[in-house]
Specification:
This protein is α/β, with parallel strands linked by helices and 225 residues long. It has a single domain, classed as P-loop containing nucleotide triphosphate hydrolases (Rossmann fold, 3-Layer(aba) Sandwich), CATH 3.40.50.300. The chain contains nine helices and eight strands. The strands form two sheets. Strands 2-6-1-7-8 form a five-stranded parallel beta sheet. Strands 3-4-5 form a three-stranded antiparallel beta sheet, with helices on one face. Helix 2 packs across helix 5. The protein binds 2'-deoxycytidine-5'-monophosphate. The site of 2'-deoxycytidine-5'-monophosphate has 14 residues, from helix 2, helix 4 and helix 8. 2'-deoxycytidine-5'-monophosphate binds next to helix 2, helix 4 and helix 8.
């Protein structure tokens, strides 16, 4: 039997960290769908293919092989057999991915793969369109919200820790632009599913968000069993 938890939320909402933690605590298979769009973007950039070159994109999609594996509790992402877990988190990909994720042909390829992954397992899947498009009938739907300013502040802090020197204003602008592209695209725009439960992480610690989401899932599970 499958049990599906859908978590949608913007970049910087803490979604990745929180989902990983909840998956570990509740023994759910964690699927990071953003990583899949990042892989397609990397493959396109490596082959100098623009988001407008649909024939070339189709060529890439025909050959692409994306694998998500868990090793020692960490998610490893393979693109065409190569470990790209770090490369897909670079700012080059950060800045390009929203444009590729808006391409219909790319979403038409990725969405069925995600549905297949949820077939026989108890999973927690995170992304932008999981509760609306990929699994509109998910058992639990969570919309993890966070203010733009707080998301920019978190990203700015992460950058400083990594030695990346970009001003807070620039980070805020790039987060705003990505948000605009993701929410205004025609296919599978990033919106809250009507029946999703909102958790606003703006003033919460990671532990508080994890606690709150575990409570929501346990409550739903009790009603299903
Ligand atoms: O969550 P993330 O930052 O790794 O996502 C990378 C990009 O992929 C981001 O621009 C949104 C897009 N995305 C999407 O369109 N649909 C998903 N289900 C997941 C991510």
């Amino acid at each position: 039997m499958s049990f599906i938890v859908a978590i949608d939320g913007p970049a910087g909402s803490g979604k990745g960290t929180v989902t990983k933690e909840v998956a570990k605590k509740l023994n759910l298979v964690n699927i990071d769908t953003g990583a899949m769009y990042r892989c397609v973007t990397l493959d396109c950039l490596n082959n100098n293919v623009e988001p407008t070159e649909i024939d070339k994109i189709n060529n890439i999609l025909d050959k692409i092989n994306i694998e998500l594996k868990i090793e020692n509790g960490n998610q490893i992402i393979f693109l065409n057999g190569e470990d790209v877990s770090e490369e897909i988190r670079s700012s080059k990909i950060d800045n390009a991915v929203a444009k590729y994720a808006a391409v219909k042909e790319i979403r038409d390829k990725i969405t069925p793969i995600q549905r297949e992954m949820g077939k026989n397992d108890e999973i927690i899947m995170e992304g932008r369109d999981i509760g609306t498009v990929v699994f509109p009938d998910a058992d639990v739907k969570i919309f993890l919200d966070c203010s733009l300013e707080e998301r920019a502040r978190r990203r700015y802090k992460q950058n400083i820790e990594k030695g990346i020197n970009i001003s807070y204003e620039e980070v805020l602008e790039s987060i705003k632009e990505r948000h605009r592209l993701e929410t205004q695209r025609t296919i599978a725009p990033f919106v809250k599913a009507e029946d999703a439960i909102v958790v606003d992480s703006t003033n919460m610690t990671i532990e508080e968000v994890v606690f709150s989401i575990i409570n929501i899932i346990n409550e739903k599970r009790k009603n299903i069993l």
